[in-house]
Amino acid sequence: MREEFLYYIWENRLTDKDLKTTEGESVEVVTTGYRNTDSGPDFLEAKIQIGDKLWAGHVEIHVKSSDWNRHGHQNDKAYKNVILHVVYENDLQVNEIPTLELKGHFDESLFAQYQRLIASKTWIPCEKSIAQVPVFTRLSWLDRMAVERLESKSGAVTKILEANQFDWEDALYKLLMRYFGLKVNNEAFEYLANILPFKTLLKHADNLLQVEAMLMGCAGFLEDDFTEEYPLLLKREFAVMKAKFNLLTMPAERWKFMRMRPSNFPTIRLAQMAQLIHKNGPLFSKIKAAKDTAEAKALFDVAASEYWETHWRFGASTESKPKHLGETTADVLIINAVAPLLFCYGKLHKDESVCETALQFLEDTEAEDNAIIRHFASCGITAENAMQTQALLHLYSYFCKRKRCLDCRIGNVLLHKINQIS
After folding, report:
1. Cβ distance 359 to 334 under 8 Å?
2. How much is the pTM?
3. Nearest-angstrom CA–CA distance, 197 and 195
4. pLDDT cut 90: percent of the chain above it
């Protein structure tokens, strides 16, 4: 028997009605309480009728009653308000708290089915049966997962805000910079965002040359001896900005160009970021004011400056081609930077409408394409938009990989379905 399975039995009231304490008193569960995921008793604020008395307090659950002493609860004040000790097997009377033994009071074939499910060697435990779950159940659970995904990301966003005195524009800049770098250069972009404050760039946002000079210069790309006019001009501008703002320069060696498409080169991405700042200035305020997703996405419709139409790197000319920030990249920024920051803003300001806008942005964005999403599709679960792909990524990372089938609504439905068939 596993303790988490007993939580599942208790929380879902899957026992029979003829419950008695080990002392023979009748037990009626009025409310199970709510699951406590922190330290302390397993279920808080339960209401239990024991004999002729109604008790209000906490419930602790163990496989064996002797686990109470083995876990050290007898010396822990947090367990003073436990009103019922629920166990699978009562192997030892450990205290005066009423004990309820569950053995023989629920369908134990359900546990056998659960064991088989989590013992599966497939990609996810329910790989062969997830498509059997009713569509409404799947979609409602994915809605929940999408919200949990944004709440999870809000934690990282809050850390940025706490470090910058809740400067929302700077927070968006830092998030955008991270995802401009993709996985290959995200650390370098994050470092650059930390040594080159957004407030400094904003002071010269009306001058594209100066913004690009500061980004390229602090990135270490203007240290060479150039012969072309444009990089020489950037280098001169950076020398002025560096002296004016006491700017730092990072080693150019931190940037990676190998094994990536030229359109993702950090030089191109920085030139596009310069245009984004030049075009929008305080971008977060414009995103908040956008009347719909299309208007917000239009803010990311930028292209690198003219020099980059014929270059991927400084000094290396190519055939002429505009370097627009593609829709796919804009979607990545909406999904990973804009939506989480908006959601965090709505949570901290207790404005549900902003949280809904963040979810709407995801729903209006194309579904992501990666190995996990493709694998779900092969199981019969096809995502229609980015809200659903984010939900599936959260489901996979926090439930499927950890085999938390008992905490998953899809897993719950399948357990009951399998049990009914058997």
Report:
1. no
2. 0.85
3. 6
4. 83
380: nearest Cα among 65, 132, 179: 132
Is residue 46 pLDDT above 50, yes or no?
yes
- Radius of gyration of the chain measured on its C-alpha atoms: 28
CA–CA gap between residue 84 and residue 44 (Å, rounded): 11
Output the CA torsion sign for 368, 371, 376, 379. Answer: positive
Q: Is 215 helix (H, G, I), strand (E, B) or coil?
A: helix
Cβ(184)–Cβ(170) below 8 Å: no
Cα angle vertex 171, ends 289, 209, to 5°? Answer: 85
Which residue from 84, 129, 105, 121 is spatially nearest to 1, judged by alpha carbons?
105
Instruction: Judge contact between 213 and 310, C-beta under 8 A.
Output: no
> What tokens appear for 386 in the block?
């980015």
Centre a 10 Å sphere on the Cβ of residue 52 and count the other Cβ atoms it contains.
7
Whether residue 246 is predicted with pLDDT greater than 80 in this model: the reply is: yes
Total count of residues recorded for the chain = 422
Residue with tokens 């439905």: 413
63's tokens: 């496989």
Residue 293 to residue 327: CA distance in whole angstroms: 13
Answer yes or no: are the C-beta atoms of 330 and 269 closer than 8 Å.
no
Query: Which runs of consecutive H residues, i.e. helices, occur in 21-129?
Result: 67-70, 109-118
CA angle 64, 70, 74 (to 5 degrees): 100
Encode pLDDT of 351-396 as tens digits. 999 999 999 999 999 999 999 999 999 999 999 999 999 999 999 9
Q: How confident is the model at residue 417 (pLDDT cuts 50, 70, 90)?
A: low
Structure tokens at 197: 């404050």
Position 315 pLDDT exceeds 60: yes
As a whole number of Å, the end-to-end CA separation of the chain is 20
Q: Which residues contact 37 (CB under 8 A, 6 or more apart)?
A: none
Q: Which amino acid is at 188?
A: A
How big is the CA angle at 255 (ends 219 and 150), to the nearest 5 degrees? 90
Displacement of CA 168 from its chain's centroid (Å): 19
Backbone angles phi, psi at 267, to 5 degrees: -60, -45
